[in-house]
Structures are given as structure tokens and as C-alpha cells.
Amino acid sequence: MPILESKEKYTYADYLTWPEGERWEIIDGVPYMQAAPSWQHQAISGNIFGQFYEYLKGKSCQIFAAPFDLCIPEFNESDEKISNVISQPDIVVICDKSKLRKTGFFGVPELIIEIISPSTARTDKITKFNKYEKVGVKEYWIVEPEQKIVSVFLLQENNRYGRPNVFSEEDQITVSIFPDLAIDLKPVFTGI
């Protein structure tokens, strides 16, 4: 949920001054405080992360899990002026390691996975969806733990996300940016 202070627009420089024990994001200059994730959320994240991690060993791309700062510049602004600090994307795959610095990644990742909860559903499905589409994230997954489904959005030639491919716990997802990688959803949702 956004904080209620009156400053017009917050930036990465402001973010660096906030208490370390608090989880914040800034989207279009508006700060949002993040709640601690549930154990189900953490289990799903770990299960997905593990499959990607094993695949990416020895390859040029790398995977990161929250907490991890994703700073998305939109107007060639300096790091400190960036007004999009998505500090808690659940899982991020990046392939340009030259943009790793300070507390995370400064650029547009290839793939982002968000695991929604009741408190983050609106932000993940609307605000972040629109932001990720606008800046050109190639692949965006929204994982819904209660329904045990994953919606995968792929950036089309018109730089818009097409209709999602929706997968259940019985499916495998072929990752578009790594066509030889299939994420098995059965172990992802086991015990949830």
C-alpha cells in the first residue's frame, strides 16, 4: 500500500535513506510498503528459483530472488533520480551483468515473476504489469498460489503483452527466452 506523505515524486536517492528493515518499492515516484510474504509464497518462490538456478548454472544469464532492487530508468536519468525502484520482484532473470550495481539491477530484465497475495494482487496485475510492458520486459509471470495457476505474458512485436498463457499445477511452462527450459509446476505447488 502506498504511503501517505505529500512529496510529489520519490526517487532511488530517497529509497536509500529509508530504514533497512522495511520493505519498500517505488513505482512512478510513489512509494509502496511491502508486507512480509507468507510461507506458501516463499515455498513457491524457492521451488521456481531452484529450477531456473539449475538451468542457468554456467550460462551468461543470472537469476535473483527478493529482496533485490530492480531500478528501471525510463528517461536516461542518473541512478539517484530513478523513480521506479521495484525492490521486491519475487524472481528476476537478467542477462546483462554490466547493469548489476549497488543494491541490484539498473535496467530492464528479460523475465520477471511475481507471486501474488491478496495485498499485492492489484499492484502486480495492474501497476507492475503496465510498467513492465511499457519498459519492455520480455516475459512476465503472475503466480496465483491459492488457485495454483501461473499466467505467462509475452511481449509481442507491437511492444504489448498478448493474451496470457495460463498453466495449472499439472503443466510445464516452456520459457520463451530459454526454449530448452521447461519449468515443472507440479513440484512448485507441492505441499501448498
UniProtKB/TrEMBL annotation:
Residues of the signal sequence? Answer: none
Which Pfam family name is an example for this entry?
Answer: Uma2
The Putative restriction endonuclease domain, residue ranges: 13-185
Transmembrane annotation, as ranges: none
Q: Which InterPro entries match?
A: Nuclease_put_TT1808, Restrct_endonuc-II-like, Uma2
Question: What protein does this entry describe?
Answer: Putative restriction endonuclease domain-containing protein
Tell me the domain of life. Bacteria
Origin species: Desulfosporosinus youngiae DSM 17734
Which Gene3D superfamilies does UniProt cross-reference here? tt1808, chain A
